[in-house]
Amino acid sequence: MTNIEAECLTLALQGNQDAFTQIVDTYQNPVYNLCYRMLGNPQAAEDAAQETFWRAYSNLKRYDPERPFATWLLSIAAHHCIDQQRRKRLMTVDLDEIIEFSAEDPAPNPEKVIVESEFSEEIQRQLNGLNENDRAVLILRYFYELSEEEICQTLQISKSAVKSRLHRARQHMTDQWTTSQESQATERRQHESQTI
Fold first, then answer.
1. How many other C-beta atoms are found inside a 10 Å radius of the C-beta of residue 161?
2. Residues 81/46, Cβ–Cβ less than 8 Å
3. Contact 41, 99 (CB under 8 A)
4. What is the DSSP string of 162-192?
5. What does the alpha-carbon distance between residue 150 and residue 75 come to, in Å, rounded to a whole number?
6. Residue 114 has pLDDT above 70, yes or no
7. What does the alpha-carbon distance between residue 63 and residue 75 come to, in Å, rounded to a whole number?
8. 182 FRET partner, CA 20 to 30 A, in 7, 18, 136, 174?
9. How sure is the predictor about 182, in pLDDT bands with cuts at 50, 70 and 90?
10. Residue 91 reports pLDDT greater than 70
11. Alpha carbon distances (Å) from 147 to 82, 130, 141
12. How many CA within 13 A on the CB side of residue 165?
């Protein structure tokens, strides 16, 4: 945490709303990205990010300054998204709905955008195939580069649970990626044989 972030946090703890707005500005992208990876839908991610910041603001007095603020904030987001996924599964909403991110490059190469979009959609489909607990661990480890210890703190689970969930999630992603690549190769061969 930078000195500016620490100062904003101190002021926010004293009730300064402008300081909390600065915190939101600082962390909105990491929180939104975590929510998007967890939920797979931009609108749901936006709602979850707003809820995360509201919960953080409401519970700011409970924040332990000995703990990194980003870890505390991301744990709020992760737990909220896990709860959302549980509700979603209970309501039998279609988990395969994928909405594309827009490209960040203002003048992108069209071919590159298509390939990146397809790759991103495939990764999101595979993430959606994981249960919410395994998905949370995988996202925190690989998208946010948290250590196993930080994941333990964030999700309030044991180190062995983190390792087990990571192993399961990696295996799932590997299996799904292999199946997807084999399927695409078969489709290409069939298409090539039909055009000859």
1. 15
2. no
3. yes
4. HHHHHHHHHHHHHHHHHHHHHHHHHHHHHHH
5. 10
6. no
7. 12
8. 136
9. confident
10. no
11. 20, 20, 7
12. 22
Tokens linked to 176: 């799904």
Domains and their CATH numbers in the chain: 3-195 (1.10.1740.10)
First to last CA, the chain: 61
Q: For residues 135 and 176, what is the distance between their CA atoms, to the nearest angstrom?
A: 14
CA angle 177, 181, 182 (to 5 degrees): 115
Nearest C-alpha neighbor of 140 from the set 123, 152, 124, 158 = 152
Distance CA 106, CA 92 (A): 38
Whole-angstrom CA distances from 152 to 37, 107, 160, 190 are 19, 41, 9, 47
Per the confidence metrics, is the pTM higher than 0.85? no
E strands present in the chain:
none
Give the H or E element holding residue 160: helix 159-195
Count CA within 13 A, CB hemisphere, residue 31.
Answer: 28
